[in-house]
Design goal:
single chain; alpha+beta; Glutamine Phosphoribosylpyrophosphate, subunit 1, domain 1; five-stranded antiparallel beta sheet; 30% helix; Proteasome_sua/b; 20S proteasome subunit beta 3; Ntn_hydrolases_N; nucleus; proteasome
C-alpha cells in the first residue's frame, strides 16, 4: 500500500465560464477503518483562491500552516494580495525544497486571476508530491479516486459552464467517482468561486 492511500480522500477542480469550482470528499480513514466524516481538505487562501490537499493527514495540517505563513509573508513584503499563478509556484517550490523527504500530499489549486483588462479568469493547477506543476484548462484531480474522477469528468465536463451548471457537474463527478473508491466518500464539500461571491455547499452521500 502507498502512504498516499493511508488516509484516503480525493479532490477535483473544474473551470467554468468566469468561475471555478473545487470539491472534496469528507472521509478520513486509516486504510479501510473510518475515523471521521468531517475532515477538511480544501482551504480558503483568499477570496479568490482555494486549495485542496489530498494525502497524508498529518502533512495536510503541516502544509496548511506553512502555506498560511508563506502567503502572509508575501502579503506583508509585496503589499498586495497573492495571485493564483504565484501561489501555484509557491506551492511547487515549497514541495520541491523537501523532495528528498517529501510531504505526502498532491495539492490542487483553484482561483480567479486578474487579467490586464481588469477582469477575472479561471485558473486551476495541481502538483505531485515533489512540486511538479500541471496546468489545465478543463479540470484537475488528485487523491485515491483520481482514476475514477478522470473518467467521470471526461464524460461530464463541458466548456463555459455557468456557476450552477458547474456546481452540478463537479458534484456529480465527485459523488460518482468516490462511490467507486473504498478510501474516499462520506459526503462532499463543494466551493464555486465567482467574481461576486464564493458559494459553498455540503452534500450528503453514502456512508458505507
Amino acid at each position: 500500500m502507498s502512504i498516499m492511500q493511508l488516509n484516503g480522500g480525493s479532490v477535483v477542480a473544474m473551470v467554468g465560464k468566469d468561475c471555478v469550482g473545487i470539491a472534496t470528499d469528507m472521509r478520513l480513514g486509516n486504510q479501510a477503518l473510518g475515523i471521521s466524516s468531517e475532515f477538511q481538505r480544501v482551504f480558503p487562501l483568499t477570496d479568490r483562491i482555494y486549495y485542496g490537499l489530498p494525502g497524508l493527514a498529518t502533512d495536510v495540517a503541516t502544509l496548511r500552516e506553512r502555506f498560511r505563513y508563506r502567503v502572509n509573508m508575501y502579503t506583508i513584503k509585496e503589499e498586495r494580495e497573492i495571485e493564483p499563478e504565484t501561489f501555484a509556484h509557491l506551492v511547487s517550490s515549497t514541495l520541491y525544497e523537501h523532495r528528498f523527504g517529501p510531504y505526502f500530499v498532491e495539492p490542487v489549486i483553484a482561483g480567479l486571476s486578474k487579467t490586464p483588462s481588469g477582469g477575472l479568469k479561471p485558473f486551476i493547477a495541481a502538483t505531485d508530491l515533489i512540486g511538479c506543476l500541471n496546468f489545465a484548462k478543463d479540470f484537475v484531480v488528485a487523491g485515491t479516486a483520481s482514476e475514477k474522477l478522470f473518467g467521470v469528468a471526461e464524460g461530464l465536463w463541458e466548456p463555459d459552464l455557468e456557476p450552477e451548471d458547474l456546481f452540478e457537474t463537479i458534484s456529480q463527478t465527485l459523488m460518482n467517482a468516490v462511490d467507486r473508491d473504498a478510501y474516499s466518500g462520506w459526503g462532499c464539500t463543494v466551493h464555486i468561486l465567482t467574481k461576486d461571491q464564493v458559494i459553498t455547499r455540503t452534500l450528503k452521500a453514502r456512508m458505507d
